[in-house]
C-alpha cells in the first residue's frame, strides 16, 4: 500500500480524515491501514470512551454518575504507544490496559458513559490535540459531525448487522475468547440503538460524508477506496 501520499490543497491546514460508523463496520482495521499508508497519526476515539469506562469500574464510579464521570474523563492519565513489533499499547495510570479495554464488557460500558454530554465534552480537547502534521485519521462515531466538523475528508462506513456480528465473532474466536453469534448480534443491536438514539452526538453520517457500505467487500478493497477518496479530495485543483 505504498505511493499513497496525499498533499493537502491548503498546506497551512493539517488534513484530517474522519471515518465514522457503527461497531463492526470495519472502521478500526480500515483506519489503521489508511493511517499507515498515508503516514498519518491515528486517533482511536473509542479507546478513550473505553478507558473512561474501565477507570470508572476500577474506582467504583457508577456508569450513570455524570458529574463524577466528567471529572474522571477530564483528568485521566492515558498514554498510547506501541511495542517493538509495532502492536498498539494503551496505558491507564501507568498500567498496560491494552487487553482490558477490548473486552465486550468494556465496549458496552463505553457506550453507556459515551451517552453522557459531560463525558463527551471532557474528551473533546483531548481528541483535537491528536491533530499533527502531516495528517490525522480519526476513527469514531462523531468525528465528522462534532469533533472535526471542518475535516478535509469524511467517510461513513456501514455494513449489515449480520455481517458485523459475524466479523466480531470471527475476531473473538481468533483471540480464543468464548462468544456466541446470537449473543453478539443482540449486543451489537443494543449498542447501535444506544449510539443512534442518544441525544449527545448520536451516531449519524455527516451531510458531507462519503457513505461506504462494506458488506461483502474485503478490507483491502475498502482501504483502496478510502485512499482514492483521500487523494481525490486533497489533490490541488
Ligand atoms: O469504537 P469502539 O467500539 O471502541 O467504541 C466503543 C463505544 O464508545 C461505542 O459503542 C460508542 O458508544 C462510543 N463511542 C462514541 N463516540 C466515539 C467513539 C466511540 O460514542 N467517537
Hetero groups in this structure are:
cytidine-5'-monophosphate
What is the H level of CATH, i.e. the homologous superfamily?
P-loop containing nucleotide triphosphate hydrolases
CATH architecture: 3-Layer(aba) Sandwich
Average pLDDT taken over every residue? 91
Instruction: Describe the global form.
Output: globular
Describe the structure.
The chain is an alpha/beta fold and 237 residues long. The protein has a single domain, classed as P-loop containing nucleotide triphosphate hydrolases (Rossmann fold), CATH 3.40.50.300. It is built from 9 helices and 8 strands. A 5-stranded parallel beta sheet has the order 2-6-1-7-8. Strand 4 and strand 5 form a beta hairpin. Helix 2 packs across helix 4 and helix 7 crosses helix 8. It binds cytidine-5'-monophosphate. The site of cytidine-5'-monophosphate has 14 residues, from helix 2, helix 4 and helix 8.
Amino acid at each position: 500500500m505504498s505511493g499513497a501520499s496525499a498533499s493537502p490543497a491548503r498546506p497551512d491546514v493539517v488534513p484530517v480524515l474522519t471515518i465514522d460508523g457503527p461497531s463492526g463496520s470495519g472502521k478500526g482495521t480500515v483506519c489503521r491501514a489508511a493511517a499507515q499508508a498515508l503516514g498519518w497519526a491515528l486517533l482511536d476515539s473509542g479507546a478513550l470512551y473505553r478507558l473512561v469506562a474501565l477507570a470508572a469500574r476500577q474506582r467504583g464510579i457508577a456508569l450513570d454518575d455524570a458529574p463524577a464521570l466528567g471529572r474522571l474523563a477530564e483528568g485521566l492519565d492515558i498514554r498510547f504507544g506501541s511495542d517493538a513489533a509495532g502492536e498498539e499499547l494503551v496505558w491507564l495510570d501507568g498500567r498496560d490496559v491494552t487487553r482490558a479495554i477490548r473486552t465486550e464488557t468494556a465496549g458496552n460500558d463505553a457506550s453507556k458513559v459515551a451517552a453522557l454530554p459531560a463525558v463527551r465534552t471532557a474528551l473533546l480537547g483531548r481528541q483535537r490535540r491528536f491533530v499533527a502534521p502531516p495528517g490525522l485519521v480519526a476513527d469514531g462515531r462523531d468525528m465528522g459531525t462534532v469533533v472535526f466538523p471542518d475535516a478535509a475528508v469524511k467517510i461513513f462506513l456501514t455494513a449489515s448487522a449480520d455481517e458485523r456480528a459475524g466479523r466480531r465473532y470471527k475476531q473473538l474466536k481468533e483471540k480464543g475468547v468464548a462468544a456466541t453469534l446470537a449473543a453478539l448480534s443482540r449486543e451489537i443491536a443494543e449498542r447501535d440503538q444506544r449510539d443512534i438514539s442518544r441525544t449527545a452526538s448520536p451516531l449519524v453520517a455527516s451531510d458531507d460524508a462519503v457513505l461506504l457500505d462494506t458488506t461483502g467487500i474485503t478490507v483491502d478493497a475498502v482501504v483502496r477506496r478510502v485512499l482514492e477518496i483521500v487523494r481525490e479530495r486533497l489533490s490541488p485543483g
